[in-house]
Amino acid sequence: MSLLKLPIVVILSLIISGCSLIGGQKNQAVTIKYWGLWDSAIVMNQIRQDYKKIKPNVDIIYEKKSPQQYRESLQAQINSTTGPDIFQFHNTWTQMLESELAPIPQSIISQSQFKDEYYPTIFNDLRNSNKEFVGAPLGIDGLGLYYNEDIFQAAGISQPPSSWQELANTVVKLTVRDTAGNIRTAGIALGSASNVDHFSDILALMILQNGGDLKNPVDARSADALEYYANFARGDIRVWDETMSPSTVAFTGGSLAMYLAPSWRAAEIKTANPLLKFKIAPVPQLEGGSVSWASYWAIGVSKKTKYQKEALEFLKYLQEDDTLIKLYSESAKTPGRIIGMPYPKKSLAQKLASDPLVGAYVSEAPFMRSFPMASRTFDNGLNDQIIKAYEDAVNEVLKGTPASNALETTAKNIRETLAKYPKKPQ
Fold it and tell me: Quick one: CATH architecture of 144-293+381-420?
């Protein structure tokens, strides 16, 4: 019987029931489980409600997880099919999560969009071994040079140093010692591993700027960078040493003039000491160079989700300019936070370019590079193990071992670590 001969009542009942003749599964109720690390449930609820207006059949359930053991828990639960549909991951984890991350189709975000709209480090970082994009960033971060305005003013210094040579001269003027020669106000927190928060990011930046090889640091440029780093904490001209408080604590307390750290530390410092006057400048460069550091979090979709289409559509929504802007503004209103995560898109840079806290990171973003030496990922994997290899090298150099000798052991340990997480072509 043709459709034209069906009674009108039957035709109407077919339409109302949403049968397969008209694609009735299109508006099926779907629940997407989203694992995050940094955004509060209040912030994400705003995004969730906005998305519900566009996709009324899709419900986003957001869970804020602890960063400790997150990576192992994420992989275990995805592989047992009880994990999230969409989740946050660090930009250095693409190799470790090769089996869990679904490729992003061109219809969601095209390769040309990744290249044209995002910063180069994002284009390079978030691809799997088949060169498929497997994540999209919610922000960009790295290292900035925090400086205490009162200490600078007392020393008669009006601007933060923009080069390492200028910094070397400046820290001597900023360092204050007591009559016994002990450091009371440190010029900058550099040279050691035990009490320099983010030492691995800083050392990685120095090696990259000097043209060294982080993956196999047996070259002279890597050794020179390590020696230079250690010099800040040894000898009579040291401006920092292992007797000092952890660098974040020292800067917050006003006994440290300069401090290299990611943008999110600003809120922590402001909360702990609201009266501290500080600004953040771009990291120092070698003369004629432009290399900065990247460490940021992205979102990806599970290969195991049965709602991959819906999860990818939500990922796309999270990358829209209006959504990123709202995420930033709502995050900045959260108690304990005064800023959001700097935007990952070039087109949004001007919105934050003049901000005294995050403007430095935006200006550095075009020159950012990354490697698995990012602090505080808590991954018990590539980052933590490679950081330990470099930490041992720093400690050996402070004991008097030549950097070139110390880095031979580091290179061996890095090779062994990378072998645990081989790339897996699909």
Answer: 3-Layer(aba) Sandwich (3.40)
